[in-house]
Amino acid sequence: MKTYLRILAHAGPIKRLSLFYALTTLLAICFGLVNLSLLIPLLEVLFSQTEGSTLGAMPKPEFFISLTHLKELFNYHFINIIATHGRISALYFVCIVMIIAVLLANLFRYLAEIIAAELRVNVIHNLRSALFDKISQLHMGYFTNQHKGDIMARTMSDVQEVEHAMDYSFRAFFKEPATIIGFFVVLFYISPQLTWLALLALPVVGGSITIIVKRLLQRAAQSQTSLSRLTGILEEAMDGMHIIKAFSVRSYISTKFEQENRVYAKLNLSMLLKTNLIPLLSAFLGVLVLTLLLAYGGSMVLSHESAFTASTFITYIIIFSQALVPIKSISKSLSNIQRGLAAGKRIFALVDIQPAIANKPGARAAKKLKQAITFKEVQFVYDHQPIIKNLNLTIEVKKKIAIVGPSGGGKSTISSLLSRLYDVTQGVIQIDGLPLQAYDIASLRKLIGIITQETTLFHDTVFNNIALGRPQASTRTVIEAARIADVHEFIQYLPQGYQTVIGVGESKLSSGQRQKLGIARGVLGKPPILVLDEATSALDSTSAKKVQEALDKLMQGKTLLVIAHRLSTIRNADEIFVIDAGEVVEHGTHEVLMQKGGLYKQLVRA
Ligand SMILES: Nc1ncnc2c1ncn2[C@@H]1O[C@H](COP(=O)(O)OP(=O)(O)OP(=O)(O)O)[C@@H](O)[C@H]1O
Ligand SMILES: [Mg+2]
Q: By alpha-carbon position, which residue is closest to atom 17 of ligand 1?
């Protein structure tokens, strides 16, 4: 119920809309009932059971809104027409009233549908927005492959599931109960005896359906989990398609997919079998009740004991069979609502995750670096794997600092920790003596420009890709940044220059070109601290040298942190830190380290 209310809270102006929905639905039901009830006079006029001569006994009824009044008012006019214009005219009269009733019933039904549609569309839209909002706030550590598939499933199919459930819930919680009440009021009015009999028999129908629905629910949750695993595998396959092809390991991923696909199919089959059983069962039980009524009501008509005529009885049976429709619909709706609620729970579980990295109250803006960045006894654990073990390092302002070391030693992790993509597990990283957590995250990330090993480009123009996060950037500054990255000329030769749309995949650009765009993006805001993580690794040595010189010039008087494999680019660094297995093993200038003859010297030799 809590989940349901939370979903409703996403439906927009729910009070106003649900009021309209209730009103239009009730009107639709009333006119539908009027229409059905008109069968009695229709049949009677056909069977010649009503005589115009009874008119004298009937006073024109006083105005009063009640079922009896409506009936009497109709009968008054009906008999009046038979008396004055004959049976055919009376038939036409009934037909006209019927058409009007059907028209109104359908008009109001349509209005109710429109309102229900608006509520559903709002729910989808608002839930997806809430989800995406949360996803973009989550810390980097959350986006494992497993989680990615799960997020996709929740944002796409779970939201869809909730939408269906919404629709069904309007029906099951309001429309159908109201319809049933309406029908039974009329049924009681026509024949209390028959209706009591029906009411005694119906709980049996309801009870057996509830039992099946309950068993169905367990499958629903399992099938959704399986679907999200399946999506995860699909996602993984698409991400790694070129590796899959290059290593000819299609069968590996196919088998993985096939296994999960089979599990999903099995769960789905078992669920579908049960879902289909529900309407069958309820139809059969419905007919059973109906037959009971036919036998009992039929004998009432044949015995001529009461004023219960054949026309009334036929109409009663027709209305009763119509009353079974909403009952069946409720049972079907309930199973769908359960599926939707299961999906809703999964959605809210994601929405409720607290981002591990968030601003503390009172966080201050990081404006500039005055003294130094210090890593003090920093430890960092990824998936229970200690990556950074005991890192002590100081980066003084306005210095060019280099980090070198074997692959996998934790160099890129240091830059991720510095811009708080992850938080340290133990120890502290300080900027001017204050821990990173004391600063506003957005200002911290503006302070530190990072050019990463891999450049992610978005499906947008070259200009917007460079000016990412800085929508106010002028053409001049973007071109300046592109020049530093040695990519200005290349961009000019593109079909629409800076306005050329570049794709998501690697297809359109070489990795060197992508990296240059990444460099341009990184230097655009002229951040006081710039971190280059193998920023020129994909470039040829001439190009790399050119870019490195331009960067050195740009960063004069600023702080530059260079992570490099190509050791020639960092020879002139003020201090070089050699990192191995998450620790600083040696540090000093190039000359000092060469003299020492340790790991650095080995790396240079290699
Ligand atoms: N997203 C991640 N999840 C789990 N472990 C990771 C993740 N990213 C990196 N690691 C692990 O952290 C360790 C350090 O990785 P890092 O990228 O910092 O190394 P690096 O020194 O930059 O290496 P390279 O020179 O190859 O770029 C590696 O052992 C790697 O397996
Ligand atoms: Mg790295």
A: 412
Please provide the DSSP assignment of 116-181 as one string. Answer: HHHHHHHHHHHHHHHHHHHHHHS-GGG--HHHHHHHHHIIIIIHHHHHHHHHHHHIIIIIHHHHHH
Q: Which residues surround ligand 2, an ion (CB under 5 A)?
A: 411-412
The reported pLDDT for the residue numbered 566 is 76
Give the closest ligand to the alpha carbon of residue 452: 2
Average confidence score pLDDT of the chain: 86
| Each residue's pLDDT tens digit, 198-222 | 888 777 766 776 776 676 666 677 8
Whether the predicted pLDDT of 61 surpasses 80: no
Q: Is the pLDDT confidence value at 52 over 60?
A: no
Distance CA 160, CA 344 (A): 10
What digits encode the pLDDT tens for the residues 163-196? 989 889 988 889 999 999 999 998 998 889 889 9
Looking at residue 171, its pLDDT comes to 87
- 405 CA to centre of ligand 2 in angstroms: 10
Classify residue 555 by its DSSP letter.
T
Cα–Cα distance between 378 and 385 in angstroms, integer?
14
Predicted confidence (pLDDT) per residue in 110-149, tens digit: 999 999 999 999 999 999 999 999 998 888 888 877 788 8
Is the pLDDT at 161 greater than 50? The verdict is yes
Which amino acid residue places its CA nearest to atom 25 of ligand 1?
A: 407
Q: What is the pLDDT of residues 567-589, one digit of tens each?
A: 888 888 999 999 998 999 999 99
Q: Which fold has domain 2-351?
A: ABC transporter transmembrane region fold (1.20.1560)
d(CA 67, CA 187): 12
How many A from CA of 295 to the centre of ligand 2? 83
Ligand number nearest to the C-alpha of 403: 1
DSSP state of 10: T
99 Cα to the center of ligand 1, angstroms: 74
Residue of 406, 434, 410 lying closest to 422 (CA atoms): 410
Q: Given a cut of 90, is residue 480 above it in pLDDT?
A: yes
Q: Which residues line ligand 1 (CB under 6 A)?
A: 382-383, 387, 407-413, 453
Cα(409) to ligand 1 centroid in Å equals: 7
Hey, where are the domains in the chain?
2-351, 372-605
CA dihedral of residues 253, 256, 258, 261 (deg, nearest 10)? -120
Cα–Cα distance for residue pair 223/211, rounded to 1 Å: 20
pLDDT at 339: 87
Residue minimizing CA distance to atom 5 of ligand 1 = 382
Cα 481 to middle of ligand 2, angstroms? 24
Judge: domain 372-605, CATH 3.40.50.300.
Answer: yes
User: Of 140, 382, 384, 393, which is best to mutate to test ligand 1, by the most ligand atoms within 8 angstroms of its C-beta?
Assistant: 382
Rounded to the nearest angstrom, the distance between the alpha carbon of 458 and the centre of ligand 2 is 22
